[in-house]
C-alpha cells in the first residue's frame, strides 16, 4: 500500500494508505471525509470541555444577558431542571454568559475530560509522526467515546440548543465561522503531488508508478487556489542542526584567529630585554621639552 502523508499548507494532517490502483477521486473523497470527521471530533471536544466547566448552554435569547436583564425580560430556561448533571452540580459562572454556570461534580468532570483526552489522542497529528495511518474508524471511535461520556454525565440529555448536542446530531451551525472555513467539500478540493494537480479521473499509479511501498506527501488545496508551496529542502530539525553546525564553525574560526594574534608582542611583559633595561635604569623614560 502507498502511504500518503496528507498536508494542508505546512500543517501535517494524517497518514492515509491506498493502493496504486486506487482512483484519485476515491482518495480525495477519503481525505475529505477523514479531515472533516477529525474537525468534528475536535469541535465536540471543545464543546465538552466547556460543558464540564460551565454546564449546559443557555437558550439563545438568554445568552450574554445579565441576571437583571433576564429578570426584566421575564426569560426562563425551560431546560434548567431537566438537563442536570448526574451526581449534582456546583455554581461556576460562565464569564461569557453563554452557559448556565452550573458545573458538574469533580467525578463527572473527570469522566468528561478523560473522554476528551482519549478522543483527541485517536485523531492526533502525532499519529502521523508515529507512522500510524488513519482510517474512518479513528474519528468514529472518538465520537462514540465522547457520546458515551456525555450520556453518562447528563442522563436526561442536553438542551436542543446546546452546541454539544447539535454537534452530536449533526445540526452544528458553522456558517460564517472560522470552524466552517476549515471544512472541506470534495467538489471544491484538489490534491497535489510534486507540484502537479492529481486529476480525479486518473489512478495513483499514473503519478506514483507501480511501487506499492512508496511514501509521498500529498497536499490538500481548495480549487482555484493555485499550486501549494513546495516542501522545503530541509526539515525544521535539519535547519536547526545546520545552524548549530555553522555556529560551532564560527566559534572555531574565532578561536583560531585569537590563537594567531601576535599583538601581544607589543606588550612590555613580552619584551625579552625588559629585565636588562630595568637594571640599567632605562625603563619608563619620558622626553619633555626644556
Automatic annotation (TrEMBL):
Positions with biased composition (Basic and acidic residues): 90-106
InterPro entries (alphabetical): CFAP298
Origin superkingdom: Eukaryota
GO biological process, one term: regulation of cilium movement
Coiled-coil region(s): none
Region (Disordered): 84-106
Family: Belongs to the CFAP298 family.
Protein name per Swiss-Prot or TrEMBL: Cilia- and flagella-associated protein 298
Origin species: Scylla olivacea (Orange mud crab)
